[in-house]
Structure formats: C-alpha cells, structure tokens
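Q: A reviewer asked whether we had any structural model of the full assembly, not just the individual parts. We don't, so I'm hoping you can provide one. Inputs are below.
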Amino acid sequence: GQNIDQPTEMTATEGAIVQINCTYQTSGFNGLFWYQQHAGEAPTFLSYNVLDGLEEKGRFSSFLSRSKGYSYLLLKELQMKDSASYLCAAGSLGRLYFGRGTQLTVWP
Amino acid sequence: GAVVSQHPSRVICKSGTSVKIECRSLDFQATTMFWYRQFPKKSLMLMATSNEGSKATYEQGVEKDKFLINHASLTLSTLTVTSAHPEDSSFYICSARVGAGVNEQFFGPGTRLTVL
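A: Here is a predicted structure for the entire assembly that you could use as a starting point for your response.
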C-alpha cells in the first residue's frame, strides 16, 4: 500500500521561511512531487525530485532522501499569496499518491 | 502548453441520475489520464487510471460499475457517475500525463458534483 504523511496545518508570517515535511512509504517509488492547491482549484506543479538532494527553483526548494523516505518543501520570503494547501505526492508505477495536504496560512 | 480542461465545472443532479464529466488535453496527446476525487479539506484520492483504447485500471475500493471511465481518444477521457447518490457529492479532478515514462501530471480545473 501507499502511505504519505504530512502535517495538516502550518502558519507563518510574511517574509519568513517555512519548511513542510513529508514522509512516504510506497512500492515502486519513482519520484516525489510537490503541488500547490488553492481552495476550489486544481493543483499546480511546484517541484519534482527523483534523486537525493536539494532542487532549488526561485523561492521554492524541495529536498529528497530516498533512504529515509523523506522530503521537504522549503518556501522562502513568504508572501500572502502563498497561503494555500501544499500536497506531497509519491510517484509509484506511473501513478501519483497524495498526502492529505498541508494548509499553510501566511499572516501579514 | 500542457493544458487540461474539464466540463462541466459544476453540476447539480438528483439522486438516481447519471452524470458524465469530460476531461480533455487541449494541446497534447495523453495516452494516460487519471481520475481523482477530493473531499473538503482532504487530499486527492486516486480513483482510476484511464488508458486510451483499453479498460481503465481502478484503485482498490473504487466500484468500476459505479464510476464508468472511457478513454476513446488521445485527448478525451470521460467519467460517468452512475445512479448518483448524495455520498457521491465531491470534487472530481482529472489529470493527464504528457508522455510514457514521464511522471509529471497536469491537472484539470475540477468538477464540483452535488447530488441532491
């Protein structure tokens, strides 16, 4: 089976840095995805890690440790518009299995 | 590029009726599309994998006779919720994979189904 775990909620202030953790257990693992989803909208792709290490893309970075079954999404210089749900998804045999999402609220 | 559309965006129907939701890849051909449902404040639950020209592969616990999936062309997959009941009310989202061996999926805008 698939088991993807991430915190339910996080809060932070504008300009701060926040790290959203994700642990996963899945068979046939072939990559870890992060998506952003605003309420009532479709998820939008943020990042993809298949090898261990850090992938940096502007204000967002994502890290993967395959041996530990662990990933994190790092958001820097937080803006109000970053308030959203962040979904961790493990790729397995061509499919994506999602965690429940972390609802991030950014305060002014 | 890689735009996926869904129709309708919202639908309200009476209990016992069937509802069809369309998912289209607008600027690419998708041999594989996926159907998810999402409950409020919950994550996306994969329902089935839709392969062009063949039967869909359903996840464990998803009734294939209840949720009929057809992938008749490389740009269109449909999900039909048969004999809908209030507990089928949910947000249904489709996604498409750009190519074989590529994991990234592009998501449609979702369809909000309300069954009265």
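A: Points you may want to mention in the reply: Chain B has no helices and eleven strands. Chain B has a mean pLDDT of 91.
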